[in-house]
Amino acid sequence: MKCQDAEKYILLQDSGEMPEKRANELAAHLHDCEPCQEFQFSLIESQVHFQTLEEEPSATAMQNVLREARMNTPEGRNVRLPHFGWRPAIGMAAALVIGLGLFFGQYSSDQVAMELVMTETQLLETEDQVASTIYDGFSDDDLAFNFLMTYEDSFASL
Amino acid sequence: MDISDIECINAYLGGDRDALAPLVEKYKRPLYSFILKMTEGREDADEIFQETWFRALKNIEKFKHKNFLNWLFRIAHNLVIDRARRRKKHVSLQSGIGGDEDGNATLEDHLAAQGITPAEETGGTMLGVQIEEAVKTLSPEQKEVFMLRMYGNVSFKEIAKLQKCSINTCLARMQYALGKLRSILKDEYEELQEAMS
Fold this sequence. Notes:
- The complex is a heterodimer.
- By secondary structure, chain A is mainly alpha-helical.
- Chain A has 9 helices and no strands.
- Chain A has helices spanning 3-15, 23-32, 34-52, 59-71, 83-107, 109-123, 126-135, 140-150, 152-157.
- The longest helix of chain A is centred in the middle third of the chain and has 25 residues, at 83-107.
- Chain B has 2 domains: 1-84, RNA polymerase sigma factor, region 2, helix turn helix motif (Rna Polymerase Sigma Factor, Chain: A, Orthogonal Bundle), CATH 1.10.1740.10; 118-197, Winged helix-like DNA-binding domain superfamily/Winged helix DNA-binding domain (Arc Repressor Mutant, subunit A).
- Chain B has 11 helices and no strands.
- Chains A and B meet through helix 1, helix 3 and helix 4 of A and helix 1, helix 2, helix 3, helix 7 and helix 8 of B.
């Protein structure tokens, strides 16, 4: 292995990208080659030094970034829900509720009964319509009692 | 990608406003250090650091990379290039390197990072200062490969994608950068090596 190639493999080994089959070859070269050992040493030494030289952004820059992050939160719009299953089901349920509502609204028994009552009432004479409205819902006993009370004096005079 | 990175991103996408704070904290040093070395001082670096995160936040729903820090480096790389292009227009070509009698900015002024380095701030080692000086002599591409390896542990494959070149070109740039550092810091490295052996 040439030194030029060995240096490349030293770099690739450091980044974890070296092909495994080259490992032994590189190790053998490094064992005997002083310049390549120095190259490897300078790489390691640089890493140590640069890690100690790391710097931080200003407090203002950090605050700005954190504030922007808070302000631009996606607000849960990306929560991983099974959209494909729920959306059509919700649509179908809504359509079913509307359909049932229309059906029972149009053909409900209360409404039919109301229509019959109205029709019977309308068939009567005007005066009878008033009486029908007043006495509607009274039982036969109630009506008999009411009749007796109305004509009580007339019966007494007889 | 780191499991905790995925958890943080998913929590943020789920509406947790503070979920990204640990990631900002975790990556602030490598990202900022890289930007600082590639720009013209702390003011510029702060601006690009913020802009990198703003863009990341804007596009976080589209994030599909394996490595979040690599993605941040990629955004920062594009921003540094954009800024350098804009700056280039403002630098007088006639002024050249080394001076301008009218006191305008020269090309030299725009290349090296200004301000006090951390090594100088802490009254740190001579070696630290010398490394800083040596890095300034590298070309932007060599410097970028070197910094991405030093600060981000970015793979050569990723760097090649970022710089739109072959892995071999990236390796050659790194070899050159290390070679240059070795030649400048030869005495210091020899002393260290002797001390360790």
